[in-house]
Write a structure and sequence with these properties.
Blueprint lengths: L31 H8 L9 H15 L4 H10 L4 H14 L4 H16 L3 H10 L4 H8 L4 H16 L6 H14 L4 H13 L3 H8 L3 H15 L4
Length: 230
């Protein structure tokens, strides 16, 4: 009996070729030469520092108006040099993109109308934003004493609509509220006293007993004594 032929090679049991073997393109080889060629490709040059500074400023100003000091702080945080920062901000000053005086006037008007803040509180806010003292004083001068007293009275009347408690407790809360908004003791006490006098007979009787001038002087003395020494 003849020996069995090996079922290999091109016989009937030969494995069929894999589909696509012949059509697959050879894979690119990334040897040392390819790596060297990639390293020699030109890289993107860093952007000019002035251009970066301008973009930072414009993004800041797109949110809301800013003072020069605020923009300088934002540039410093991003690593912009003082020289480039001053150059860009000087140019923005020249063309009116930065205007601390206009900023201060708008800030005083908006914060007094919207939040009822008095001049003292507004002066603190402008100082924290880096507005020059003379510029801030000029902007605050547009808010006169009569307007400030009228706003204080309106704030008290609005709070009284929902106030609960004995007249003396209500009196202390409302005076404290006005003090936190920057109103001096005399303005705050008189505003609350007048509003209580018009609220009810009980409140009017309590208000009648308040010596606004004496109490304002006492509050003023206490405020001065509590200030830290320089």
């Amino acid at each position: 009996m003849a020996g069995r032929r090996a079922r290999t090679g091109r016989g009937w049991d030969a494995s069929p070729p894999r589909t696509g073997d012949a059509a697959d393109p050879p894979r690119p080889r990334r040897g040392r030469r390819a790596a060297e060629a990639s390293a020699d490709e030109p890289t993107t040059t860093p952007r000019d520092e002035s251009e970066v500074a301008r973009e930072i400023c414009l993004r800041q100003l797109a949110v809301r108006p800013r003072t020069r000091a605020e923009l300088a702080g934002a540039l410093a945080k991003r690593g912009i040099s003082e020289e480039v920062s001053a150059e860009v901000l000087d140019r923005y000053d020249e063309v009116g993109i930065i205007d601390d005086a206009a900023f201060a006037r708008a800030w005083v008007s908006s914060r007094h109308t919207g939040r009822g803040l008095a001049r003292r509180a507004l002066a603190n806010e402008l100082r924290r934003k880096g507005v020059d003292g003379e510029v801030a004083t000029e902007a605050l001068g547009e808010l006169d004493e009569e307007t400030e007293a009228s706003t204080a009275r309106a704030l008290v009347e609005r709070k009284l609509r929902t106030a609960r408690g004995e007249p003396d407790a209500v009196f202390r809360r409302l005076v404290g509220m006005l003090a936190r908004k920057g109103y001096p003791p005399g303005v705050a006490i008189r505003a609350v006293k007048d509003a209580l006098a018009a609220q009810s007979a009980e409140a009017a009787e309590f208000a009648e007993q308040i010596d606004a001038d004496a109490l304002a002087d006492a509050e003023g003395d206490l405020e001065r004594d509590s200030r830290p020494l320089d």
